[in-house]
Amino acid sequence: MPSVREAAFDLLRAHGMTTMFGNPGSTELPMLADFPDDFRYVLALHEAVAVGMADGFAQASGTVGHVNLHTAPGVGNAMGAIFNAQANKAPLLVTAGQQVRAQMTYQANLTNRDATRMPHPLVKWSYEPPRAEDVPAALGRGIHLASLPPQGPVFLSLPMDDWTAEADPGDTARTVARRVSGAAGADPATVAALAARLDAASNPVMVAGGDLDACGAWDAAVALAEAAGLPVWATPAPGGGRIGFPEGHPHFRGVLPPAIGPAGQALEGHDLVLVAGSSVFPYYPYIPGPPLPEGAELVAITRDPDEAARAPVGDAIVADPRLTLQALVDAVAAGARPAPEPQPAPGPPAESDPIGGSQVHTVLADVLPEDGIVVVESPSSTAALRTRLRISAPGSYYFSAGGGLGFGLAAGIGVQLAQPDRPVVCVLGEGSAQYAVTGFWTAAAYDVPVTFLVLNNSEYSILKWFAGMEQVEGAPGLDLAALDTAAVAAAYGVPSRRVDGTEELREALTAGLGSGGPNLVEVGVAPGMALF
Ligand SMILES: Cc1ncc(C[n+]2csc(CCOP(=O)(O)OP(=O)(O)O)c2C)c(N)n1
Question: Cα(8)–Cα(506) distance, rounded to whole angstroms?
Answer without folding.
Answer: 48
